[in-house]
Amino acid sequence: MKTKLTSLILALTAGFALAHEGIELGPNKGRILEFSTDETMHGEVTEKGGKLHIALLDKDMKPVKPEAHSVTATAGTRQAPVKLEITKDESGFTVPAPKEGEWLIMQYKETEAGKTITARLLYDTTVCGPCEKPEWRCACGEKEKK
């Protein structure tokens, strides 16, 4: 019981600590996730019709065709993770949006034999007061830094 309570407190604290901090928006006003260790590949996550679209962007934030690239996605809880079905087209990847408050864990590979890069997104659809965007793509903190 004590472990579960501690885990819950840490998860809630992390969610509040991450809100508004370090969120970068891309050219389509989507959330940027790092898909490389040297900032040469990014994923821009946008939402439409209950689905998330992940477009690949290079270091200059220009679109990249997802030729040999691959992404896998998992949502749910740590105790009951759910692998999400991903579709791929010439503009990127599409995945069903996770449930409110769930983490979306994506594993990106540039090639089949390439190194796996893991990116995480807390899918928090609570509306931010100042910018009126969902928290998962709120960049109020980004404006404050500039």
Description of the molecule:
The longest helix is centred in the first third of the chain and has 17 residues, at 2-18. A hairpin with a 6-residue loop joins strand 1 and strand 2. With 146 residues, the chain is α+β, with helices and mostly antiparallel strands. The protein starts with a helix and ends with a helix. The protein has helices spanning 2-18, 140-145; strands at 31-34, 41-48, 51-58, 63-64, 70-76, 81-84, 87-89, 92-96, 103-109, 117-122.
CA-CA gap between termini: 44 Å
Query: Topology as H/E string?
Result: HEEEEEEEEEEH
Query: Total number of β-strand segments?
Result: 10
Largest sheet: 6 strands, antiparallel
Low-confidence stretches: 4-20
Mean pLDDT score: 85
Q: What's the short story on this structure?
A:
Residues 4-20 have low confidence and may be disordered.
What secondary-structure arrangement, pairings included, does this model have?
Blueprint: H1 2-18, E1 31-34, E2 41-48, E3 51-58, E4 63-64, E5 70-76, E6 81-84, E7 87-89, E8 92-96, E9 103-109, E10 117-122, H2 140-145
Antiparallel strand pairs: 1-2, 2-3, 3-4, 3-8, 5-6, 5-9, 7-8, 9-10
Features:
146 residues; 10 strands; alpha+beta; 6-stranded antiparallel beta sheet
